[in-house]
Structure formats: structure tokens, C-alpha cells
């Protein structure tokens, strides 16, 4: 009877948490809708456009911080804050390298978070298919770099851009590999969506392909989705860790 009551209590707790989490994410959804409503192709860069673009990520960071507290500052919350800095920088084309640097730091912080103890509950011993996915991920990253390399050579600051993009691809591939290691669905899907977003952005920024119809929408939808999934994954991981500690006590 005690076991049944505990299971029922756990189910109620999960339902209550899901409802509360959805409510706390409502500012993110609202600000994302505002961004897509106000966004106009070819609009000039401005502080207002930078604020509107980064607002969803800042609100997402606030939501994660309210759930997880300070333990996520040097992890997902920190990654979200650096992502918001990157969002602001990318509004101005001349600050592209600065934005890429901010996102590189974000990927490092996400990677550190995925290595933390709260993801241990998901990541059991590594199996051969997981290692195979690691290999595939880094091969795809290398293939992307080779594919865009000729376009990078044509960039005005190619002497900086070539190594910078290479390092960035390594970092985002590492983040994706560590996300797969967690075997936590939101975290894995979020990292893969982030990679799709960055690939779409790279193809457009470096003019690798012809202009993509609704290109910005593709980049931003996959980007906001990625950040949302990574944030939700972190909240769920902390909640599961706390629940496990409570059961052991």
C-alpha cells in the first residue's frame, strides 16, 4: 500500500510540476510571439531589435534560475545569458565574430552542465551505438566545415574567420555529443535543433547557397526551440535528482 501511495504521489507531483513549469515558461512563449510579429526582413539593426530578439532567451534564463537556483548559473543559465549576448551581437553584421564567441562560451557552459551529476540518472554506461553517434556527429561537423570552407576563404576577414568557425564547430559538436551522452530526450533534441539552426545560419551568412526562402524564420524557430528544450531538460534533470535524493533520505 505504501508503494502504491508513493507512486500515486509521484504522478501527482509530476503533473503539478509540468503545469507550473508551463506557466513559468509563458513569458518566453509570449516574447517569442512578439519577436515573430515585429520582425521584418531587411529591417535596420537597432537596440530595440536586439532587445526583442534576446528577450525570449533572457526570460528563459530567468525561468530556469527560478526553478534550479544558483546551481545552473555555471551551466544552462549561464549558457542562456551568453546566448542572449550572442543574439544582440548578431543583429549587427560587423559584430558577427563577437556573437559567435558568445555562443561558443554558451556551448562550453552547456557541455559542463551535461557532464554534471544531475544528468547521471539518464546517462548510464556508454554503449557502442552511443559512441557511433559521437563519431557521426563529429564527422558531420567536419563535413560542414569542408563544405563551407570555400565560402569562408572569400570572407573579408578570412584569416580570423577560418580558425574561428573551425573551433566553433568543434565546440557545438562536443555539446551535441555530450547531450547525446545524457540520453535525455529534451536535451538531445535541443542540441540537435541548435545545430540545425546554426547550419541554416551559416549557409546564409557565408552565402554558401542561394538565398533560402523564409531563411530567418527557419533559423529562429529552430534556435528558440533548441533553447527551450535545453532549458526544460535541465529543469527536469534537477527535479529528478532532487526526487532521487528525497527517496533515499
Question: What key attributes describe this structure?
Answer:
249 residues; mainly alpha; 80% helix; 0% strand; disordered C terminus
Q: How would you sum up this structure, described in words?
A:
- This protein is mainly α.
- It has one domain.
- The chain has nine helices and no strands.
- The radius of gyration is 19 Å and the shape is globular.
- The two termini are 20 Å apart.
Q: How many strand segments? A: 0
Shape summary: globular
> How would a crystallographer describe the biggest sheet?
none
> What helical percentage do the residues reach?
over 70%
Q: How much of the residues is beta strand, in percent?
A: under 5%
Unreliable residue stretches: 4-9, 244-249
C-alpha-based Rg, rounded: 19 Å
Q: Tell me the number of structural domains.
A: 1
Taking the alpha carbons of the first and last residues, their distance comes to 20 Å
Q: Number of DSSP helices?
A: 9
Average of pLDDT = 87
Spell out the helices and strands N to C.
HHHHHHHHH
Q: Given the helix and strand composition, which structural class is it?
A: mainly alpha
Family: Belongs to the TMEM86 family.
Keywords: Membrane, Transmembrane, Transmembrane helix
Membrane topology: Multi-pass membrane protein
Transmembrane segments: 20-39, 45-65, 72-93, 99-117, 129-148, 160-180
Amino acid at each position: 500500500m505504501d508503494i502504491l501511495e508513493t507512486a500515486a504521489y509521484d504522478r501527482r507531483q509530476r503533473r503539478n510540476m509540468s503545469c507550473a513549469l508551463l506557466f513559468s515558461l509563458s513569458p518566453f512563449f509570449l516574447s517569442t510571439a512578439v519577436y515573430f510579429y515585429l520582425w521584418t526582413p531587411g529591417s535596420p539593426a537597432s537596440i530595440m531589435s536586439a532587445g526583442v530578439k534576446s528577450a525570449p532567451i533572457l526570460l528563459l534564463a530567468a525561468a530556469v534560475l527560478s526553478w534550479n537556483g544558483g546551481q545552473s548559473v555555471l551551466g544552462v543559465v549561464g549558457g542562456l545569458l551568453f546566448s542572449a549576448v550572442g543574439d544582440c551581437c548578431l543583429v549587427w553584421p560587423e559584430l558577427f565574430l563577437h556573437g559567435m564567441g558568445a555562443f561558443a562560451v554558451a556551448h562550453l557552459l552547456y557541455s559542463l552542465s551535461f557532464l554534471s551529476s544531475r544528468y547521471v540518472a539518464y546517462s548510464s554506461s556508454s554503449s557502442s551505438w552511443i559512441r557511433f553517434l559521437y563519431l557521426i556527429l563529429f564527422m558531420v561537423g567536419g563535413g560542414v566545415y569542408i563544405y563551407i570552407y570555400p565560402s569562408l576563404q572569400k570572407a573579408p576577414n578570412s584569416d580570423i574567420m577560418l580558425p574561428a568557425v573551425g573551433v566553433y564547430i568543434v565546440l557545438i559538436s562536443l555539446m551535441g555529443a555530450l547531450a547525446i551522452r545524457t540520453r535525455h530526450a529534451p536535451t538531445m533534441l535541443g542540441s540537435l535543433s541548435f545545430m540545425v539552426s546554426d547550419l541554416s545560419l551559416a549557409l546564409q551568412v557565408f552565402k554558401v547557397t542561394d538565398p533560402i526562402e523564409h531563411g530567418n524564420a527557419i533559423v529562429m524557430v529552430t534556435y528558440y526551440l533548441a533553447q527551450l528544450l535545453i532549458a526544460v531538460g535541465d529543469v527536469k534533470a534537477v527535479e529528478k535528482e532532487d526526487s532521487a535524493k528525497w527517496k533515499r533520505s
